[in-house]
Amino acid sequence: MSMNLDSNVSFSTKSVHYQNKSDDENEEEDNKVISRSVSCPKVIESAKSMSDDEDHDEEKTKATNSVSYGSTAHYRAGYSTSLHNYLDSGVQTARDMKNRTKDKVNQAMEEVDRFAHKVWDGRWRVVSFFQLQEWQKDNEFLHHWHRPQIPSFKACLASIFRIHTETGNIWTHLLGVILFLGICVYYLCLPATQFINVWQEKVVFFLFFLGAVLCLLCSTLFHTLGCHSERVHKIFGKLDYSGIALMIMGSFVPWVYYSFYCDSEPKVVYMTSICVLGVATIGVSQYDKFNTSRFRSFRAVIFASLGLSGIIPAIHIAIKHGFMPSLTKGQLGWLYLMAVLYLTGAFLYAMRIPERYFPGKCDLVFQSHQIFHVLVVLAAVVHFHGISNLQKVRFLHGEQCMAGD
User: Fold this and answer.
1) What tens digit of pLDDT does each residue of 319-366 get?
2) 3-state class of 146 per DSSP?
3) Which residue of 306, 320, 324, 397 sits 20 to 30 Å from the alpha carbon of 140, by its own alpha carbon?
4) Quick check: 347 and 371 in contact, CB under 8 A?
5) CA distance 44 to 246
6) Domain for residue 148, yes or no?
7) How many distinct structural domains can be found in the chain?
8) What is the pLDDT of residues 148-166, one digit of tens each?
9) 142 plus 220 within the same structural domain
10) Prediction pTM value
11) Is-contact 202 195, C-beta < 8 A?
12) CA angle 41, 43, 47 (to 5 degrees)
């Protein structure tokens, strides 16, 4: 026990002494301890174990860092993939919405189209004057029973059998077309024994029938299809006015032909003049403003002037044959009656009588345009009667010219 105590004291003294040494001396002591330790196999084995542990810890740290980096890269790749998938799904959703919207629009258009056909194919209702489109407003004294705009030719044609403001205008001239087509066929089928110069006489009568039928037919089409659209209204309005000019031109041809049967020079002059005036009138009627209600009176004056141009050859006949013979043999009486009917109709049309004095009372019947139509048909019938009598007078005298011809 005494020895252990001494050794402990000695070790303690050495430790204190060691701690009091300088750094250099301490380093030398460490080296000596290490050298002694190296010589010991257990120490060497312990040192190797410690070194292996350090290497294992280093590899573990590297592996941990590698896993950490791999996790970050994997996270970044996953985030990029998710973002790409999200954008793709957004684009696909937008495309689906676009396609659905397109399908809905097409379906709505089809519904509108079916509804339009359902409405315009006979289920429209008459409207008042103030509900009309601006281009449809022609006579403010007709208050009700107007057709609305009907963008269907089939429905417009079917409106012939409906009651509205244009029903009377349509049928007055439609019946006139049928009447003159029948007279034309009958007259042109007459045997050649009833004519002096068959082909010439049938041609001049055919021109009269052609003018009358075209006038009445164009008028019928205008009043039937005029409610379709503004463009169609303008087109058939121009055809209507052109037909009036053609009817006046056609009416002059047979009368001038028989009145100046043996006098070729004035016959050619008068026929050429009326054709030039008629073509000029057709040209003027092609302007869009000519078809507006503002130029109603101007239109009446233009067509009345074209018709009154026949006064010049009538005066010529009266001076040449005498007033009374021109009324009887020359059939000028019927020509004058025709002029009175035309002028009366044009005057009533321009002044809008009688609906001007009875607004809203003549919406369906007895309006000025209907009266004008009736007078036009009557004037054409009167004119046909006059030129037919003129042809019979010429046939009775044969090819020999009458006194004064």
Assistant:
1) 988 888 888 888 899 999 999 999 999 999 989 999 999 999 999 999
2) strand
3) 306
4) no
5) 135
6) yes
7) 2
8) 999 999 999 999 999 999 9
9) yes
10) 0.69
11) yes
12) 115
